[in-house]
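Reading a protein record of the kind used here takes little practice once its layout is understood. An example of such a record is reproduced below.
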Amino acid sequence: MDNRPIGVFDSGLGGLTVLKEITELIPTESVVYFGDSGRAPYGIKSKETIVKYTFQDIRFLLNQDIKMIVIACNTASAYSYGLVKHNFDIPVVEVVQPGSAAAVRETRNNKIGIIGTTATISSGVYEKAISSIDNSIEVYSKACPLFVPLVEEGWWDNDIAYRVVEEYLIPLKEKGIDTLVLGCTHYPLLKNTIEKVMGEEVKLINSALEVAKVVDRVIKETVSGRDEKIKPVYRYYTSDSVEKFESLASSLLNKEIHSAEKVDIEKY
């Protein structure tokens, strides 16, 4: 048995959508979460900065004696996954491939939309992943840089969110897509608003559940699971306001979070 926790990180709150799916699918596992809200969003940063932040986040988590890394950030996955695999001797799970595979399974008319941060969309990582599975699929991508600030502010389902979502997504709707990949782990928090704009006929792909399935498989194949008689422990860290993190995390996870700690991530 390996009772060490899983390490999950994101540029802010969005990765909690991944953590939530992991804890529901594998409730015996402990998790350490780091949300880098103090430096969010990653999606408008340069590749060099994104890689630097990713490595700092991982070095912090490694100090927590974790047994695997989950990059719960599409931007970090797009620009850093290969480098992380090369530089760190620990199992690593990213979010792009699971979401891409789910979209290919779900589409009926072979028209898939991708939304993400400016950096994720510029990388073309989703187009490459989808094409590697089925190169007959048409992919339409759209950067939505204001979505992450909306989520970090807690504006998930109000008039401002609706107007911003509508501005970004109407062009994709007009392309006739039947599947939309939420290519940022923050975006599922805007799910209700996105559904209002896109309509029920468009399937939204939240890669968080798909990522949790991969985490479960990796634990079974490459690292040991926990002793189920030992109660799992969840620890939360942020690089910004603890009070704001706890308030929004409690709302997202549907349970009270009072134990978050602030980290000086630049030390790592």
